[in-house]
Amino acid sequence: MSRIIDIHRHLWGYDWFPPSHLPKFSAEPIAKKTGRTVEQVLERIKQSPTMDATGKVAIEEMDHYGIDVSIIQVLDWGLAYGPDEDNQLPAEEFNRLAQEVCKQYPGKLYAMASYDPRRPKAVALFEQAVKEWGAVGLKMYPPNGYQANDERCLPMYAKAAELDVPVLIHTGGNIWAWPEWVELVARQFPDLRIIMGHTNLQAPFETKAYWQGLQAGARHNNIWLDLCDWQALGAVKEENIPELLKVIRIFLNTKGPERILWGTDLPQAGVGSRARAQTETWTDIFKNLPEWGKKYDIHFTEEERDGICFKGAEAAYSNIKF
Question: In a 10 Å sphere around its CB, with 0-12 CB exposed, 13-18 middle and 19+ buried, how is residue 148 labelled?
């Protein structure tokens, strides 16, 4: 078994979202399926462990799965909702709150900063988060309506390079989040450590969207590939595990073990849920990668396992003393 660092999980407070986000994307679909009212579903969401702005549930989940360290990906959704809506809390406030949570769990939780690059003071706010609050990097979320290589993003990358912190750029899901835009950023900023969030997989595992991500990241040593959330998209279905292990073998052959990163995209649903079972399997596969490979006649070394589980994270986040 190997030490393991989750480089991509979340921490949510109910008021960290734009006011229409949870009703539209969470409550309304659940209400239609269950016959409850939207208001009833929202109250259940508000009281659920997923809305954990304290870090308590994060630590409990980590203990359950045997995760040693987690890096919180803060997310600034606000400007995706048009000119008349923004986050309920100002972005700088929930960025600060996330850092305060991490201080309660030193050595266990770290957090990125997240500011939409279209905000007028985004660069200054990001710098403040790193220098004053302890943010360990920058999370960029292009699905909100900009490409990773948008000119408005470039000052953010320049500042991250100056501060010597990595940038995690979400890929997958829509045209804004194509991995090719990340490749262009890597060419323009060769000294910037870039994590390709999800490696373009934001659809069922069977779509094989990850090959597009691997191809875009293959030629650039400053790009790390993040496997986060694959378990929730079908990668750990019994019939898909042989293909998953073949994919991991090709990723290792192409990028090497210290350019591939493990993550979960937690929080997920609670005890007894399908999501929890998926993440249990996901964790076990990578902690015991050589043994899982033997089951399907695919060879993995302990060094490769350790690269994915923690050494890659140590390289990408060389600014953290894990």
Answer: buried
Q: What is the pLDDT of residue 270?
A: 55
In a domain, 1, yes or no: no
77 lies in some domain: yes
pTM for the whole structure: 0.96
Q: Produce one character per residue of 277-292: b if its CB has 16 or more CB atoms within 10 Å, e if not.
A: ebbebbbbbbbebeeb
In a domain, 6, yes or no: no
Residue 36 lies in a domain: no
Residues 5-52 pLDDT 10s = 999 999 999 999 999 999 888 899 999 999 999 999 899 888 888 898
Question: Rg for the chain (alpha carbons), in Å?
Answer: 19
- The CATH number that applies at residue 69 is 3.20.20.140
Which structural domain, as residue segments, surrounds residue 278? Answer: 54-316
Angle at 212 between CA 300 and CA 281, to 5 degrees: 40
